[in-house]
Amino acid sequence: MLYKYHFTDQVYYTPKGIRLNRIVAARDFGNIKAGTVGGFIKTMENLSHEGDCWVTDDARVYEDAKVCSDARVGGEAVVRGRAIITGASIVRGYAIPSQNVPIRLDHKSSQGVGHTNRIVIEANQLLAEGLISRDTSWARDVAKSGGNGLLVVRS
Question: What's the pTM value of the predicted model, to 2 decimals?
Answer without folding.
Answer: 0.69
